[in-house]
Amino acid sequence: MARAMRSSALTVASFGSSQVLRLASNLILARLLFPEAFGIMAIVSVIIQGLMQFSDVGVSPAIMQSKRGDDPDFLNTAWTIQMIRGVGLWLAACALAWPVAQIYDAPLLMQLLPVAGLSLLITGFNPTRLDSAKRHLRFGRVTAIDFAVQIAGILAAVGLALWLQSVWALVISGLISALVGLVLYWVFLPGPGNRVRWEKPAAQELVNFGKWIFLSTICGFLFNQADKIILGKYLSFSVFGVYNIGFFLASFPMLLGNMLTWRLLIPIYRELPPGESPENFAKLRRMRFAVTLALLALVAIFALLGVWLAGVMYDDRYEMAGAVVVMMAVMQIPQIVVMTYDQASLAAGDSRRFFILTLVKAVVMIAALILGLEWGGLMGALISYGVAMLFAYPVVVWLARRMRAWDPLHDASMALVGLGVGALAVWVNLDAVGNLARASGW
Fold first, then answer.
1. Cα separation of 63 and 185, whole Å?
2. Residue 349: which pLDDT band, with cuts at 50, 70 and 90?
3. Where are the domains of the chain?
């Protein structure tokens, strides 16, 4: 728990610094580029993330939870799989360029996607030392390297935006970030280097664990990116760019929560199984309450001040982003309340139940977004984001009970707090929310 607390502090500090830099760069780039550039880049990002997740065979969580997670043969086999995957992903990005450009009626995507896909090739060569550091909750150097990588990417993006005045600045800066990260991970992270290796037992363990992770990440991608996939087709690139600015501001609490749960909960659940003793369950309950309350406090800040923040930070072209911040922050509350459960199954090596949960979440999210758009335009889509998690909650409970991790006291009390935060935020920003509803055809 001491290591977990130190890692939590490093993660929060890293996240806070990262988001300050991210916000600063976003403000600068919003003035150097047009909303359409952010809309097109959002499509590029969705495709690149989709390729990563559609091919994720669970190498990182496998290293984090496996008994052989420190075995050189196991690590080298994992690195070999990861390297082959990187080459395949870049080829897939090239193959998808034409059909994606046709779907979104944006010929520029034919040029952007193959170049952006090179980042997938580069990250395929990242050393497994990165996963080993996560396995043992040693985030000091990882945090410093990630910070340096982000600074390099921001400087590159701003410099290229001044020079090129186009979306190419965002694409090329992504490649620079990937290259800087590759070099720094290899040079500064401690541990043995990787080499090409194929040990059959290690490969079998990775494949057996990763087959459900592969399916889970496909569903996870659809759940997390369904809004961009669907809205990118329904909305103009200009309005879609404004939506992404609002989503960018509102997503801070969710991004922090995902980072904390991904980095910390598999090791914690592995070392403190909640069903093993009442003491373990009590420790996890304290951790869960602390994490959820902290995230809800962040949500309250963005939900209450979203309209004001957008007005101060962006010019009139992004006026509607303020109401998007408010509604998106509020609709993320159901997901925040239950986000500490799903990693319990991965820590126990049960990737199948994790897949079932992510499948249900993806199905209800896609259905809710489509119905929301048809019923109420952009406002309907925003509301459907929160409604989807309410429908997925019974499956969350099913998984948590199987792992003996479900805490109904936590869920009920945090849901009441979240309901109060959401109601207050909508009331405070009622005029802006009403304007968004009218613009959506209500």
1. 17
2. low
3. 1-211, 235-440
